[in-house]
Amino acid sequence: MHFTPHVSHVIRPLALWLLVVFLASFTTADKPAYRLFTAIGKPADYEKALKELAQADVVFFGEQHNDPIGHWLELQLTKDLARLKQGQFVLGLEMLERDVQPLVDQYSTGELDDKAFEEQSRPWPNYATDYKPLLQLAKQQKFRVVGTNVPRRYASQVAKGSLTALNTLPAEEKAWMVPLPLAVDYELPGYKNMAKMFGGDAAHAAGVQNIIQAQALKDATMAHFLVQARAEGQLLLHLNGSYHSDNHDGIVAYLRQTNPKLKVLTVSTVSQEQLDKLDKENQQKADFVLVVPTDMTKTY
Fold first, then answer.
1. So what's the pLDDT on residue 242?
2. Cα–Cα distance between 243 and 190 in angstroms, integer?
């Protein structure tokens, strides 16, 4: 006797198979912690960005100081660029100030242990999680780490009393900053934006100018010392707050004045509600824009 299968016997396995496929695709759906874009908003993958960054003379990685994804990617980029450049790599850090450079060098050679270094070098509160791994990597792989920032006490003096507050400093202390006098270009987009943020009207003009001068002192000092730290043929990766290098401004502007022939590339870190595309206001901030979800865990 010929047996014809009931329709339900065919449909049920098919439905079950479709359900399994649907659930599998649902459970493996991409839930990215970050996305990388070019300046104009085209998706970019890490390997593509790495190859391009490795061809630069100076790379600025603009971070959000409390963003764990940015710090993790900085560590990966440092590892990869150090590997690709094979001894022609230098790491510069905003987070280390010029007067502690002897301590940085002693730590790198093993003369100072972790405890002594951290007691004397005025590390940032998030040093242990976010920057210590970079210094440990440098010690292991024997590449140089350079602190580029002006000691914060001098920036604070300028913010309160303008650049003239530095005039009476002894020569040995002036050696920790860009050569003075410093010409500040208040028309730089970043500084104009600062004026708006701090209410740059006539009533606040002097105070706002002092704040901008303090920012300029940091930017110019970092540019000055990263140029000194980099030898011909080397790649210097500089880590700093994104505002110091966004829109190829800040440190980059002073670097151009010092050595306009350098090939400079930038990365900026931004937060967005969605990661599918780069928001218009974040386009052109850097050569590569790292987008992190707004609800990403913060380190502090």
1. 97
2. 8
d(CA 114, CA 133): 11
- Residue 159, both tokens: 């913010």
Own/partner long-range contacts of 255-258 (Cβ < 8 Å, ≥24 apart):
255/58, 255/223, 255/226, 255/227, 257/223, 258/223, 258/224, 258/227
3-state helix, strand, coil in the chain (%, to 5): 50, 15, 35
pLDDT in the model for residue 199? 77
How far is Cα of residue 100 from the mean position of the Cα atoms in its chain? 21
Residue ranges of E strands in the chain: 35-38, 58-63, 89-97, 144-149, 235-241, 264-272, 288-293
Contact call for residues 150 and 221 (beta carbons, < 8 A): yes
In angstroms, rounded to a whole number, what is the distance separating the alpha carbons of residues 212 and 248? Answer: 17
CA–CA gap between residue 229 and residue 292 (Å, rounded): 31
Cβ 57 vs Cβ 232: under 8 Å: no
Given CA atoms 262, 286, 222, 104 in this order, what sign does their dihedral have? Answer: negative
Answer whether residue 129 shows pLDDT above 70: yes
Looking at the chain, the whole-number percentage of residues with pLDDT higher than 90 is 85
Q: List, in order of start, the domains of the chain with CATH numbers.
A: 35-293 (3.40.50.11550)
CA distance from start to end of the chain: 77
pTM: 0.89
Q: Give the CA-trace dihedral at 268, 272, 276, 282, to 10 degrees.
A: -40
